[in-house]
Amino acid sequence: MEVLSKTITQVLDFVSQRILFLNSYTLLGRFLKIQPVNEKYTMNDEQLLRYSRQIMLPQVDIAGQQKLLNAKILIVGAGGLGSPAAMYLAAAGIGQLTIYDDDNVDLSNLQRQISHFTKDIGKAKVTSTCQTLNNINPDTHVIAVQQRLAGEPLLREVNDADAVLDCSDNFSTRFAINKACVNRQIPLISGAAIRFEGQVSVFFPGRNNSPCYNCLYQENGEEMQSCSENGVIAPITGIIGSIQALEAIKLLTNIGDALIGRLLLLDGLTMEWNMMRLRKNPSCPTCGKTD
Ligand SMILES: [Zn+2]
């Protein structure tokens, strides 16, 4: 009986601490309405609570969270990388996510493409991803387009975004996204995963003498190795997609050191991470002439 009453006291203590914590943010919310940090978007009490674990980070704070709520991110591909990236970005409170993918959900996708569920088989991937994101966070405005992004729409979407996540699975799309990002000077967060291996880098045209994707890979018509032919272990896509989301948040809030000019490589079998320095190629056909 004594043990039980001690446990109840501990639970009550815990709850009252929580209530104190919530109230401090509620008061903060009232204060903010008088002195908004950013006039475009003022968080309500519910949002202050939803994002409280990010806001309490001094590097993020209220101002950083408001930047995220005002941000627009373009995600190309709603598969193995796009799923976790989009889910974390929605959860973190990105204001607008635009997602392009021309594919439908297949049973063989579900092992790693975690924004789709068994009930979604046959649906457009962008539709099931959109539903998942709405369930995670109704604050995030999701624009879902079932289309392979190329040409003029690609330039328009890149131009409208604060950052672009390349979560695609083919070289032609990757080179086209890179060209559009260089053209519009928009940061590109590029990820890839296959077998037990993953890699991620950030290309930020015009910033810190950043290389571009084309400085790293040559456009020679080579076919990209695919997961359907080579296989991929499920969590590798989750790890790389999550890093892409983190890099996007860092860029938008201007915190930490982005992976600009660095290629992060993961060997999931040995669990060794390697960092490769990347240099801008002065004769790069994409970025060599623009800067
Ligand atoms: Zn380049």
Q: What does this entry show, briefly?
A:
This protein is of the alpha/beta class and 291 residues long. It has one domain: NAD(P)-binding Rossmann-like Domain (Rossmann fold, 3-Layer(aba) Sandwich), CATH 3.40.50.
Write structural notes for this entry:
This protein has 11 helices and 8 strands. It has 291 residues and is of the alpha/beta class. It has a single domain, classed as Rossmann fold, CATH 3.40.50. Strands 3-2-1-4-5-6-7-8 form an 8-stranded mixed β-sheet, sandwiched between helices. The termini are far apart. Residues 1-39 have low confidence and may be disordered. The protein binds zinc ion. Zinc ion is lined by residues 211-212, 214-215, 281, 284, 286-287.
Distance, first to last CA: 75 Å
Instruction: Identify the overall geometry.
Output: globular
Unreliable segments (pLDDT under 50, ≥5 consecutive)? 1-39
CATH architecture: 3-Layer(aba) Sandwich
Give me the number of helical elements: 11
Radius of gyration: 21 Å
- The CATH topology, please? Rossmann fold
List key phrases describing it.
globular; 291 residues; 11 helices; Rossmann fold; single chain; 8-stranded mixed β-sheet
Topology record:
Blueprint: H1 2-34, H2 45-50, H3 52-55, H4 61-69, E1 72-76, H5 82-92, E2 96-100, H6 125-136, E3 141-145, H7 151-160, E4 163-166, H8 171-184, E5 188-194, E6 197-203, H9 213-216, H10 227-230, H11 234-253, E7 262-267, E8 272-277
Parallel strand pairs: 1-2, 1-4, 2-3, 4-5
Antiparallel strand pairs: 5-6, 6-7, 7-8
Zinc ion binds next to α9.
